[in-house]
Amino acid sequence: MNEILLIVLAYLIGSIPTSIWVSRRFFNVDIRDYGSGNAGATNTFRVLGSKWGSIVMLVDVLKGVIATSLYIVLPYYLTDQLDRTNFMIGLGLAAVAGHIFPIWANFRGGKGVATLLGMAVAIQPIVAVCCIGVFLMVLYLTRFVSLSSILAGVSFMVFILFIFNEKETLYRVFAVVVALMVVLTHQKNIGRILKGTESKVPIFKSRDRRRQRRKEGVD
C-alpha cells in the first residue's frame, strides 16, 4: 500500500509541467502552440531560447531525481539493494509517465528524456554523467537537442549492457526500453534531421560566427 502511494506521488511530481508554467508565466503563451508542440525542454530551447530551455531541463531532471529517490521514505528499502533498485525503477517510470501524460496539463506533456536522465542520476550516477557527456558533446557539434537526446538515450543502453555490464536483469531490460522509447518518441525529429529541416537551438552563436567569418575569409 505504501509503495502504491509513493508511485502515485512520483507520477504527480513528474506531472509538473515545467515548460508550460514557464511559457505562461513569463511569455503569456502555451509552449505547446509553438515549435514541435511538445511540452519539454527541447521545444523550450527551440522556442524560448537557451536560458529558459536550460532552466526547464534542469527542473525536469530534478523531477526524476526527486521522484526516484522517494524510496527513502520506506526504511526497509535502504538495506536491500536489489529491491531498492527495482522500486526506484518503478518510481522513476511513474515520474516519466507523469511528464509525458501530466495530470496538471490535460495529459499533454513532453517526451520524458530529461526526467529519464534524472531517474538515471538517482539510480546510477556514473552512467548518468557519461550520458550527459554524450549529450553535451553532440549538442556542441550539432546544436540539435533532439539528436543529442537520442544518442544520449542509446548510449545509456550501451553503457548499462556492455561497458558497465550491469547484472540486474530488470535494469538491463529498462535500459533497452529507454533506448527504444527515446528513438520512437523522436521519429518526427529524425525525419526532420534527415530532410535538413530540424531546428537548431540558439546556442554557441559566437562559435558559428567565427566559423562563418573564417569561411568568408577563405572565399
Number of beta strands: 0
How much of the polypeptide forms β-strand, as a percent range?
Answer: under 5%
Given the C-alpha coordinates, what overall shape results? globular
Mean pLDDT figure:
91
State the distance separating the first and last CA atoms. 70 Å
Biggest sheet character:
none
Assembly status: single chain
Number of domains: 1
Helix % is over 70%
Question: Could you characterize what this model shows?
Answer:
The N and C termini lie far apart (70 Å). The protein has one domain (2-206). The longest helix is centred in the middle third of the chain and has 20 residues, at 81-100. The protein is built from 11 helices and no strands. The chain has 219 residues and is an all-alpha fold. Helix 8 runs antiparallel to helix 9. The chain has helices at 2-14, 18-27, 41-48, 50-68, 81-100, 113-123, 125-142, 145-163, 169-185, 187-195, 205-218. The relative contact order is 0.12.
Throw out a few tags for this protein.
219 residues; mainly alpha; 11 helices; 72% helix
Give a brief rundown of this model.
The chain has helices at residues 2-14, 18-27, 41-48, 50-68, 81-100, 113-123, 125-142, 145-163, 169-185, 187-195, 205-218. It is mainly α and 219 residues long.
In terms of topology, how is this protein built?
Blueprint: H1 2-14, H2 18-27, H3 41-48, H4 50-68, H5 81-100, H6 113-123, H7 125-142, H8 145-163, H9 169-185, H10 187-195, H11 205-218
